[in-house]
Design brief:
Elements lengths: L1 E5 L6 H15 L5 E5 L13 E2 L18 H6 L4 E4 L2 H5 L5 H13 L3 E6 L3 H4 L3 H10 L11 E5 L13 H12 L6 E4 L7 H5 L6 E4 L6 H16 L1
Parallel strand pairs: 1-2, 1-8, 2-3, 4-5, 5-6, 6-7, 7-8
Helix pairs in contact: 1-9
Length: 234
Amino acid sequence: MIIAANLKTNLTRKATHKYMQELDSCVQKSSQEVIVFPAISSLDAYKTDITVGAQNAYPVEKGAFTGEIGLEHLTEFGIKTILIGHSERRHILGESQEFIAEKFHYFKEQGFRIIYCVGEPLAVRESSKEEMLAYLYQQYEGIDTQYENLIIAYEPVWAIGTGKIPTLEDIADIHSELKKKSSAPLLYGGSVKVNNVKDILQVENVDGVLVGSAALYADHFCSMIQAAEELEKN
């Protein structure tokens, strides 16, 4: 299983170091693949078995792009994993599919492990299944779905940070459809909590989870890792 944490714009550099230290002791006892995406200012060369990824970067080595970081900054910390296409980048920060595909292509050329996010807002969710799938499939335009270092994360936009969640049957149905687009590992994200993670991880075609706010506490995230470990042993 892949258990990933997107810390978003949370935890200072000092707090993130403490978080990673607490999490590392948990990961040492687990066989799960654990990925953490800290805030940009908290990126570092952490001495841990946890994979550290970037929440975002501009598709250049370096240059005149105020407020962005580039490949050179990630290379300094040995980071080779990146999150691309997250709904907050699409819907709040206005990234177009064309730019997202450009970013994907650049970091693919650099050999990065890419967690690529797709998802739909509530209005699309409440339309027909055909319209919903068409909306999701538009987010695959310009993306190499056969890229060997690709992980896809399905995150229904309406479920992120709201406490709402699709039924397990809904998750199974959508993941089944998305698996037809790519054989890459497929994560579920959107209001994943300690009390529902085990049920979600047991759904067919769910290869792991991408966790947001519920991962901000190392002990909570550790509990999710342990849940995945228990399932794998049974």
